[in-house]
């Protein structure tokens, strides 16, 4: 396949049936360079895509220009509302704006107040990303998002503080061991809070169902079964996402601290720790969201009886969400 295959509106230029294709697609989606797109460039990209849809583009317009225009639009404009997503809450801004929080979560020997602050800030940013990139085809009460936010913050803070107290009270652990274990406390706290956030903020889908479509994109109906599977897959993604980000940096830093470099350049701790955490974040994000296809195929036999009677297809599809 050429680098830029023939352009298809609202489709990915990479094969979404394979993990490699999804990974390349999401690397495009989280590209932070789109954060610096000017209003003029955005307007030109939107106009080019509209012209393509109406069959008005000239013969000199290349597939590369069309794919780049779609990349820019998808990175900035919400597909349902048609409005610009705020910079900190775009998927392309997730790493640049979220790295500060990740570094804060990995600070050595944090006080309880510091721990609470960074867990709160992390879940606040996550809530903003979830809300800004929500499925807006069906109105969801703001109270649902507030409930998810409060639940995520409460669970994150409770788990982090609770584990820290247990570690400090442990009598059989050496001081060095306690410090090492303390570094891994952010992961179970963040992972649990992420799952809580997904379940609470998407509770409306679990009760009302999500849309399922046929292979041509035609709506067949709504399914609670598909909604449960979509939320489950998203929850698994949210557990995997913080694992390398919050587990690998402490392991890497523990090895670096034993080297002569560390004793010779102790002031490098923060910039080195921040660089390692940001790198892990940047690598992990597209991998995590590429684990499952955005549009997942589900056998009709697993769906509700009314959906089985409404189609002759063997499989239907649903949008998993991010």
Automatic annotation (TrEMBL):
<dbReference type="Pfam" id="PF03820">
    <property type="entry name" value="SFXNs"/>
</dbReference>
<protein>
    <recommendedName>
        <fullName>Sidoreflexin</fullName>
    </recommendedName>
</protein>
<keyword id="KW-0813">Transport</keyword>
<keyword id="KW-1133">Transmembrane helix</keyword>
<feature type="transmembrane region" description="Helical">
    <location>
        <begin position="276"/>
        <end position="295"/>
    </location>
</feature>
<dbReference type="GO" id="GO:0006865">
    <property type="term" value="P:amino acid transport"/>
</dbReference>
<keyword id="KW-0029">Amino-acid transport</keyword>
<comment type="similarity">
    <text>Belongs to the sideroflexin family.</text>
</comment>
<feature type="transmembrane region" description="Helical">
    <location>
        <begin position="145"/>
        <end position="164"/>
    </location>
</feature>
<dbReference type="GO" id="GO:0015075">
    <property type="term" value="F:monoatomic ion transmembrane transporter activity"/>
</dbReference>
<dbReference type="GO" id="GO:0005743">
    <property type="term" value="C:mitochondrial inner membrane"/>
</dbReference>
<dbReference type="InterPro" id="IPR004686">
    <property type="entry name" value="Mtc"/>
</dbReference>
<keyword id="KW-0496">Mitochondrion</keyword>
<keyword id="KW-0812">Transmembrane</keyword>
<feature type="transmembrane region" description="Helical">
    <location>
        <begin position="239"/>
        <end position="256"/>
    </location>
</feature>
<dbReference type="GO" id="GO:1990542">
    <property type="term" value="P:mitochondrial transmembrane transport"/>
</dbReference>
<keyword id="KW-0472">Membrane</keyword>
């Amino acid at each position: 396949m050429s680098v830029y295959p023939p352009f298809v509106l609202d489709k990915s230029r990479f094969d979404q049936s394979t993990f490699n294709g999804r990974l390349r697609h999401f690397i495009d989606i989280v590209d932070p360079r789109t954060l610096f797109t000017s209003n003029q460039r955005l307007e030109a990209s939107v106009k080019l895509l509209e012209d393509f849809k109406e069959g008005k583009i000239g013969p000199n317009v290349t597939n590369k220009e069309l794919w780049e225009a779609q990349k820019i639009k998808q990175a900035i404009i919400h597909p349902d509302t048609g409005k610009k997503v705020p910079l900190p809450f775009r998927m392309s801004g997730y790493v640049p704006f979220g790295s500060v929080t990740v570094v804060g979560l990995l600070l050595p020997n944090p006080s309880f107040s510091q721990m609470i602050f960074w867990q709160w800030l992390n879940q606040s940013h996550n809530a903003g990303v979830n809300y800004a990139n929500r499925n807006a085809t069906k109105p969801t009460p703001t109270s649902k998002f507030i409930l998810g936010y409060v639940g995520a913050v409460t669970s994150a803070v409770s788990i982090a503080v609770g584990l820290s107290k247990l570690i400090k009270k442990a009598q059989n652990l050496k001081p060095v061991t306690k410090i090492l274990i303390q570094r891994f406390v952010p992961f179970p706290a963040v992972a649990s809070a992420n799952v809580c956030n997904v379940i609470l903020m998407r509770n409306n889908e679990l009760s009302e169902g999500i849309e399922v479509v046929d292979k041509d994109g035609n709506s067949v109906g709504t399914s609670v079964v598909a909604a449960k599977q979509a939320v489950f897959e998203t929850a698994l993604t949210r557990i995997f996402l913080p694992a390398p980000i919050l587990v690998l940096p402490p392991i890497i830093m523990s090895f670096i601290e034993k080297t002569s470099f560390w004793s010779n350049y102790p002031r490098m701790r923060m910039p080195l720790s921040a660089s390692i955490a940001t790198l892990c974040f940047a690598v992990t994000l597209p991998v995590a969201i590429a684990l499952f296809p955005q549009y997942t195929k589900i056998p009709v036999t697993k769906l509700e009886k009314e959906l089985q009677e409404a189609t002759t297809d063997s499989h239907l599809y649903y949008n998993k969400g991010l």
